[in-house]
Write a structure and sequence with these properties.
19 strands, 12 helices, 24% strand
């Protein structure tokens, strides 16, 4: 991968036709090491956030060995990482996927949230005695920008019987949950850990591990969460209050917080109509969250030698390159008013979910790829 000091340096020598994904490996390394140094337990990487090989290599080189995976395709990508441990945390899987994950790829950790799913795991692994089983419990997502509740999770009424049944088969038993993506209130984790503690006491079933999932935030212009140290303090205090604190391993599986800052996309303005800019990436590319989740990414003009661009004071919206009117990013994105056709913009914080959500609709979705050594526009670290 070609390395440049900045987007501007790259553009002094190139005028790319396609959008450009710009990887900052030092940002992924810094975020990963922060979690490894500060989280009071085991840190997994949520592969779904960005499964590109450079990203996987960066988090692994920084010390990650456990990977939260949701599919055989993600499992296959992890095979390039020496010593990787697989945590198959998708609560609903096919019998064939469970069997292959166990027999061919060495997965021993599986999540479930129902009697049917637990039965599938036990049958597909032929009643294996070396399983770590995590019960996914339901929890409210009231403190997150992207709620994930409703699809997965055993209810308070269902959970005790599921724990008791799993305890009879598991070499190690755990509980897991997810407070939602981009959790902006640290108390979200403490509230659910208190719920977990009550479940353990009421069920009378001892557990060996608690996986608090992901949800750790990144910084965006529309979302400025507290420092991550506040989250660690909340989690530590709540975990220390559990009756099983001395015998129970604590795990987390950040995705966004590890890699959001590690990639940006460089786009070209192909047209301007009023305060709407037509750019060559959009909702069906790396900017899905801007269209469908209301995200406003940090952004700046990076056209080389543009002396007349002026200060950033005009609110723009964007249209992506496809022919679909849903390819619309409302923003507002505040940029210099002088922008027009031929200008280039760097849009930051797309390292989480940008690349993996991009598709080939209308023939778009191809990217150039480079590496940058400068700092991201926003950072939690």
């Amino acid at each position: 991968m070609r390395v440049f000091s900045s987007a501007e340096e790259y553009l002094r020598h190139h005028r790319p036709e396609r959008p450009v994904l710009a990887f900052r490996p030092h940002a992924a390394t810094r975020a990963t090491k922060w979690f490894l140094d500060n989280f009071p337990g085991r840190v997994l990487y949520a592969t779904k956030a960005n499964d590109s090989q450079p990203v996987l290599d960066a988090v692994a080189a920084a010390g990650i060995r456990g990977f939260d995976v949701a599919s055989l395709a993600e499992i296959e990508r992890i095979q390039s990482i020496d010593g990787a441990e697989l945590y198959y945390m998708n609560p609903v899987k096919s019998r064939g996927a469970i069997a292959r994950a166990y027999r061919e790829f060495g997965a021993r950790c599986f999540a479930f949230d129902s009697h049917d799913e637990l039965g599938k795991i036990l049958t597909a692994t032929d009643g294996a005695e070396d399983l770590t089983l995590f019960l996914r419990i339901a929890c409210p997502n009231t403190h997150s920008l992207i709620p994930l509740e409703g699809k997965y999770g055993a209810s308070t009424d269902e959970a005790p019987a599921l724990l008791l049944r799993a305890r009879q088969h598991a070499a190690r038993l755990g509980i897991t949950f997810h407070v939602g993506s981009q959790a902006v209130v640290p108390a979200a984790f403490g509230e659910v850990l208190t719920q977990v503690g009550q479940l353990i006491v009421s069920s009378g079933v001892m557990v060996d591990a608690i996986n608090i999932g992901g949800g750790f935030p990144a910084r965006y212009p529309h979302s400025d969460p507290p420092g991550l140290d506040r989250y660690i303090e909340e989690i530590s205090n709540a975990a220390n209050a559990l009756a099983v604190k001395h015998a129970c391993e604590l795990l987390c599986e950040p995705g966004r917080a590890l890699v959001a800052e590690a990639e940006a996309v460089i786009v070209r303005v192909d047209a301007r109509r009023g305060n709407a800019l037509y750019i060559n990436d959009g909702a069906f590319g790396s900017l899905f969250d801007a269209a469908y989740s209301g995200f406003r990414f940090p952004i700046r003009c990076v056209t080389p030698d543009r002396k007349d661009v002026g200060p950033a004071q005009t609110a723009f919206s964007f249209f992506g390159p496809t022919c679909d009117s849903a390819d619309y990013l409302p923003g507002p994105f505040v940029l210099p008013d002088a922008l027009g056709e031929g200008d280039y913009l760097e849009i930051g914080q797309v390292g989480a979910y940008g690349r993996v959500l991009a598709n080939r609709f209308n023939g778009f979705g191809d990217f150039e790829e480079i590496s940058l050594t400068d700092e991201p526009m926003l950072s939690m670290f």
